[in-house]
Amino acid sequence: MAGEGRPRTLFPMCGIVGYVGQKQALEIVVAGLRRLEYRGYDSAGVAVISDGELIVRKKAGKLANLETLLGSDPMPDSTTGIGHTRWATHGGPTDSNAHPHVSENGQVAVIHNGIIENFSELRDELTSAGVTLTSETDTEVVAHLLAAALPESDGDLAEAMRRTCRRLEGAFTLVAVDRRNPDLVVAARRNSPLVVGVGVGENFLASDVAAFVDHTRDALELGQDQVVAMTAASVVITDFAGEVVEATPFHVDWDTAAAEKGGYDLFMLKEIAEQPKAVADSLRGRISKDHRIQLDETHLDEGILRSINKVVVIACGTAAYAGMVAKYAIEHWTRLPVEVELASEFRYRDPIVGPDSLVIAISQSGETMDTLMALRHAKSQGARTLAICNTVGSTIPRESDAVLYTYAGPEIAVASTKAFLTQIIAAYLVGLYLAQVRGTMFEDEIRAVLQDLNDMPSKVDLVLDTTEPVRELARELSGSASVLFLGRHVGYPVALEGALKLKELAYMHAEGFAAGELKHGPIALIEEGVPVVVIVPSPRGRAVLHDKIVSNIQEVRARGALVVAIAEEGDEMIANYADHVIRIPAVPTLMQPLVAIVPLQIFACEMALAKGHDVDQPRNLAKSVTVE
Ligand code: G6P
User: Fold this and answer.
1) Is it true that domain 466-610 has CATH number 1.10.10.10?
2) Ligand 1 centre distance from Cα of residue 320 (Å)
3) Residue 1: pLDDT above 70?
4) How far does the centroid of ligand 1 lie from the alpha carbon of residue 322, in Å?
5) Taking burial as the number of CB atoms within 10 A of a residue's CB, which of 85, 214, 438, 532 is the most buried?
């Protein structure tokens, strides 16, 4: 077999926590890891320093497995610790591949998020020097290099980290502890997320502020190629050459409760319920009293907005579907062509982008590597870049010319819900702003759309008031082998997103189609009893869309499909064509995705529950995918 006998490369994505202070490090680290499990949950591990000893515990599987191990094999008291939760893209998640990795001499422990691209050369070098590697990971190489760099750095761990980093290629966040420096945690960052939490008499490091927001809301953004040396009383940041650099402070504006389940059984249910607030928060402050869009915070230059001749949206997964929805609106309002490209495909097709293009990167996490790489490519071509992002201080907004934050609050469940709605809202605001600046809409037209947007929180609330019919239907259909989703116009990306939710959560074959495309092939999939969920456009809007979808419903019904219509209140006619009708409030066409997706989220969630799946942490997935 090709590749047999060669070490498999493990490219972890992962969540990282570091603590140094006065409290029990282990408790803080494990609690932080729980908040970061969305980043991966294939294995978890911790290291603490106690009485000059470096002690490590690690275990394959979810964090709960590590906690069980810690119960049966407790760690001693310590005020310095690091922890890791892993998501592997290659190779099996095993105890020995779990982080932390310890140097052969037992002096340093390292955790890592990212890819050391030149790890096989480094590994060969270490092996020829007589070092025995005990895992298949690239990370272990760093542990040995770091230990080797310590003597030549006069025992200074930060200097040893800088020396080591200068030898590494790839993307990485590294965090290390050294048993001879018991009150110190050192970390390095290149192309991978890392934030510092600044406390009083204690400091924190993490992939995401969620890990330490219980303890402090004051944080520092780390730049590219920086090393941070952290004690209980100090945080010193340098570049890889050792020059001290200033970090940008920021304040986390959401609190602990926002990252907890808040009385819900599942983060996903909580996040679905938070959608009206997330939408309202994302609109707040962006519409002036005289009904104009004000996006001064984004630093979008009006001159540039006037000069661009196209918009390109780059995003992945749910964010890409939000971009597809926005395309309909932005083209309609601005008459600018809008392309939506999956970020992972963008730079490989030599896209036509330049100074006349506005490239909008949409990302909940702000760390998705595919999106980041597409953004960098767009920048290298001279494009103007704008991030729509939910995570303050993350890499994608930092590297964009301008940023419009969504205010969804922390989204923890892996399957995205409230981020989708707020991404649509933000992209709509950008579209309206473009229309305002370029004069492609009259003021009263903009005002009318803004009124529609302002109405959306209460409309989404209405959907949430009556979820039982859709939940019951999900339970009823949970034995289906496959579910198809059909939509037209803005209902098409909603169909794609509805199918994605079902795949992610119910592990079920699900596909979304443009309803008109079905007859060109996919209709062959229809057989007796196959559920087909149809997002029905309003009969009041462009009536032609409604008529056409009714024809599409008839086509599938004639072939035995069980039709579930997602249709607005008052569309009585649809009941004649559908086996089940799930009602959503009547809203203007471009607003419909914001209400139509909600029952589909609930449908997927309930289906997963009926099948006994882990809704918040579906198999094989991770929330923030920082590998390409
Ligand atoms: C992952 C998640 C998806 C998400 C996508 C984009 O695949 O599982 O839910 O839509 O990444 O994430 P982003 O953070 O860039 O919006």
Assistant:
1) no
2) 9
3) no
4) 11
5) 85
**Are 496 and 511 spatial neighbours (Cβ–Cβ below 8 Å)?**
no
| Per-residue tokens: 299 | 């630093």
- Residue whose C-alpha is closest to residue 136's, from 54, 60, 227, 37: 60
Q: Please name the residue whose Cα sits nearest to atom 1 of ligand 1.
A: 623
**CB-based contact 364:419 (threshold 8 Å):** yes
Token pair listed for 123 = 């590994």
For a substitution probing ligand 1, which of 37, 208, 362, 364 has the most ligand atoms within 8 Å of its CB? 364
The residues that bridge with 313 in the sheet, in sequence order, are 340, 360
For 363-372, the pLDDT digits (tens) are 999 999 999 9
Cα(57) to centroid(ligand 1), Å: 30
The atom of ligand 1 lying closest to the CA of 365 is 14
Q: What class is the 15-261 domain? A: alpha beta
pLDDT of 218: 96
For residue 422 and ligand 1, the question of a CB distance below 6 A is answered with no
Would the pLDDT of 8 be above 50? Answer: no
Q: Where in the chain is the domain with CATH 3.40.50.10490?
A: 270-461, 466-610
pLDDT over 80 at 626, yes or no: no
Check pocket membership of 317 for ligand 1, CB cut-off 6 A.
yes
| 343 Cα nearest atom in ligand 1 | 15
> Does the pTM exceed 0.70?
yes
What's the rounded mean pLDDT across residues 387-406?
A: 93
Residue 424 Cα to ligand 1 midpoint, Å, equals 15
What does the alpha-carbon distance between residue 571 and residue 581 come to, in Å, rounded to a whole number?
Answer: 10
Instruction: Say what the pLDDT of residue 13 is.
Output: 65
Fold of 270-461: Rossmann fold (3.40.50)
Nearest CA to ligand 1 atom 5: 317
Instruction: Calculate the CA 413 to chain-centre distance.
Output: 10
pLDDT in tens, 292-310: 998 888 888 899 999 999 9
- What tokens appear for 112 in the block? 């890592």
Intervals of CATH 3.60.20.10 along the chain: 15-261
205: which 2 tokens?
């490091």
